[in-house]
Specification:
This protein is mainly α. The chain has one domain. It is 77% helix and 0% strand. It has 6 helices and no strands. The chain is globular and about 45 Å long. 31% of the residues are buried.
Amino acid sequence: MTRTTPTLLKPILIAGLIAGALDITYACVFSYIRRGVSPAVVLRSVAAGALGPTARDGGMKVALLGLFFHFLIAFIAAAVYVFASRGISFMNAHAVVSGILFGLCVYVVMNCVVLRVSAIHQTLWPWQYAKSALIGGLLIHMFGIGLPIALVARRYSK
């Protein structure tokens, strides 16, 4: 690998950190405003996806595991986009549109696939959520996850 060859690890890490931080910040603020729950409760809910509903009664270790899982998912999303953008030039040429659409895809995959096969077996479809949760979820996925990932991928594609 030459010095000028862009590495894929750097954009994946940067994009995953940005998207993960924006998303978890949104989730914690929204959950506190809507239901008065602490960030630890939000993180334990994330861990419940792997450990089952009893994880919600866990302590700080379970919350930290939830934070780990959250960022793991963000890094996976970033990796998917970065790898795809290396083969599909449209994604870098039109990063804003591609990022917003990618964010919508992440939302659909998370809510219609991942939550359904997780240990909590989410039964609600996304459009059955309260309007504030649906709109907020769509917006954070489009502009807090998809768009930053696309912009970072484009920045490191050259």
